[in-house]
Every structure is written in structure tokens, then in C-alpha cells.
Amino acid sequence: MNTIKGIKILLVDDEPHILQFLELGLRSEGFEVESASDGINAVQMADLFNPHIIILDIMMPGIDGVEVCRQLKQNGNDAAIIMLTAKDEVSDRIRGLTTGADDYMIKPFSFEELLARIQARLRNQFPNLFGEITLGPFGIDDRKREITYLGQALTLSPTEYDLLKLLVIKHGTVMSKSKILNIVWDYDFGGEDNIVEVYIRSLREKLRDKEHVIIRTLRGAGYRVDLP
């Protein structure tokens, strides 16, 4: 795997031998790695270290991985979270994913598979690290700040670019108006949340999305882009 310099990974597990194994392997791949052995330290470390990826064990004493995940998302942490579980149970996966986890792996797992999952999450959630990424019919090039749809470049304002990029990268996930405002307009935005509707309308016009099948509205919840 071609590692990009500066990618940070936080490991959270109460089993020392797993932490040591993953630390050695990931550092040898060129990642910056920090670790925590319990939930409380994990939340604090995530705030200080600001990782791109968090590999988080579900079964831990005290605050378990699901609660750690919930707190991280509540705090606005945008790291991609890959949950680890020793139980091959659907309920564990559902709890983790519905709390905000992006992926899961069942112990024991191969290191090669973990690297592949890390690469996939980075490309999906941090495409700017790679310069250019293709997601379904969309192409996002952060170097040019350009988005293409079906091979055609869209004429977008800076805010339209940031909004469409967010929706495409988070495809399949409902983004509420408040979350969009926090990310695209920043926390200091003091205007009305109907500004989101104005920009969504503009994006739909540029995408010729009259039927709202590209950018979907989920009444009372927010907006979602679904990719084939």
C-alpha cells in the first residue's frame, strides 16, 4: 500500500499484545500511530492527536467502544472509525454502525485486510489526501477544487463545492442541516439554516436534478446522496 505521509491512526484496545502488534505493523507502513488502552483515554487522545483513522475495540472495561464512538461523534470528531469485535454477532455490528462507526472487523483478522480497510476509509472520507477521487458518477479533484458529474465539470462557487463534496463523500449518510452548517459554514455561522436549502436548490439545478434523485431530501432529517 502506498502510504501518504502524515496520516494519523489512533489504536484503542485493552489487550497489550494487539496494540503492540498493530503499532509495529502500522508504523512500518509509514503511519503516525498513537494508542490508548481504555475508553476515557481514547476520547482524550482523539481530541489531542486528531487522527484520520481510529481502530476501536468494542469490548473494553469501563467505557466500551460503542460509547467511545458515540462521544467522539457527539464531539464532532470526523475520523473514520473501524470497530473491532471478537463476536461474530449482528447486534454488535448494528450497535457500532448506528452509533457512527464507518466499518467493522471481526477478530482475528489479517493485517493485510486491515490495511485494505484503512485505505478504503481514507479514500472515501479524506479524498483531499489523494488529490483526486472518483465516487460513482462524481469526480472530486481538491487540487483544482473541481467536481465533475458524468465526466462534465460543474461550475461551482466555493461554498457549492464544499457542500457537494461533503454530500458525495458522505454518500449513503443523511446529513442534517445543522451538521451541514457546522461543517461547511463552520460553527461561527450566525445566519438562518434555510441557507442550506438555497444552496441545495442551486446544486440540483446544476446537476439537472429536477426529480431530486441525485440529492435526496429526507423530510425532517436532511439530505443524502446515493451512489450506484
TrEMBL record:
Pfam families referenced in this protein's UniProt entry, alphabetically: Response_reg, Trans_reg_C
Residues annotated as domain Response regulatory: 8-122
Sites of 4-aspartylphosphate modification: D57
The protein's name in its UniProt record: Two-component system, OmpR family, response regulator
An annotated GO BP: regulation of DNA-templated transcription
CDD domains for the chain: trans_reg_C
Keywords, ordered alphabetically: DNA-binding, Phosphoprotein, Transcription, Transcription regulation, Two-component regulatory system
InterPro entries with a match to the protein in the record: CheY-like_superfamily, OmpR/PhoB-type_DNA-bd, Sig_transdc_resp-reg_C-effctor, Sig_transdc_resp-reg_receiver, WalR-like, WH-like_DNA-bd_sf
PANTHER family with a match to the protein in the record: REGULATOR OF RPOS (PTHR48111), TWO-COMPONENT RESPONSE REGULATOR ORR33 (PTHR48111:SF1)
Known DNA-binding region: 130-227
Keyword Thylakoid attached: no
Residue ranges of every copy of the OmpR/PhoB-type domain listed in the record: 130-227
PROSITE patterns hit by this protein: OMPR_PHOB, RESPONSE_REGULATORY
Any one of the GO CC terms: protein-DNA complex
Phosphoprotein found in the keyword field: yes
A GO MF term: phosphorelay response regulator activity
Organism: Paenibacillus uliginis N3/975
